[in-house]
Amino acid sequence: TASRAAIGNATRHGFLVREGDALERLSKANVIAFDKTGTLTYGTPEVVVVESVSEAFDESEIYRLAASAEQFSEHPLGKAIVRCYKKTGAAPAEAAEFQMLPGRGVCARAEGKRILVGNSALLREHGIEIGSVPGAEAQLRQGCTVIYLAVDGRFAGFLTLSDTLRAESAATIAALSALGVQPVLLTGDHENTARAIAEKLHIREVRSGCLPEDKLNCIDAYQRKAMPVCMIGDGVNDAPALKKADVGIAVGGVGSDIAVDAADIALVDDEVRELPHLVALSKRMMTTIKCNMIFSMTLNFIAITLAIIGTLNPVVGALVHNAGSVLVIVNSAFLL
Ligand code: ADP
Ligand code: MG
Asked: Which protein residues are within 6 Å of ligand 1, measured from CB?
């Protein structure tokens, strides 16, 4: 009864609890792992800089090729590149052979060229040398995300995007720390960007440059140390970690369906600020469950003893038994 009442309360705060025992598991979590893009940030970044490093392409061509390759992308960064490009009044070229590489980027064929768009690890994986790019490094230090573009196996240019931190992220992290849950940042983004964000939010533990499997391994490492983990994420790249964690919470609005499918709880309207409420609610629910059990067992024990010695007659016995159930239900209903 307490669990149902708590789920009812969670629903009114925008959480769709998909697994009956998810709140029970959440009450035990002492680490809460956050994904960055889309979870702590709004996930609607703006393109700040487009730069070409190749003589064959100018800035507008770099921008067009990136937008063309990303047009089927469901990653917040990919969608942002297409959205910002369309705002300039231009339309991306047709693309084929689109492939999404979670935690790295995308590849596609457009205008007869093979295009790779993503982080430095993606280009390195394909044997493409980036070298030193002073323009990109300056942007990284400011907390921007740098997306590299390669055309036909050659590094051609980069775009930088700046995402806004959710206004409520800092307060949410502070409230969760106060509840005794340690926040951790798990991101596929560059170390400098991750550090800049973590510093603003006072998160001490940061893992950057994570591929989906790195996020999974990080969760596993905590679980091996007997620390139950709650993971919050929005992307396809977070799905394995959401599934592996003791409790997975998907940011459903900006997020992908795959993340929602892998999670135990979905945050329907992306109100990250409600997280401390959910954690506190789960702890209150456990207290209610324990109180109810102790109360009803004690009541039954006393009533049975009184019945044995003949003080309690059958009619009063039946009444006491039902009164116990009613009190348990009333106590649980306070969770609503
Ligand atoms: P986060 O963990 O912060 O949500 P992801 O793991 O989704 O980030 O992505 C990690 C990195 O991979 C991004 O910072 C970006 O550099 C690159 N990346 C992922 N998807 C795309 C994409 N569709 N287009 C360009 N870059 C991408
Ligand atoms: Mg994300």
From this structure: 35-38, 70, 73, 75, 77-78, 103-106, 117-119, 145, 147, 187-189, 235, 237
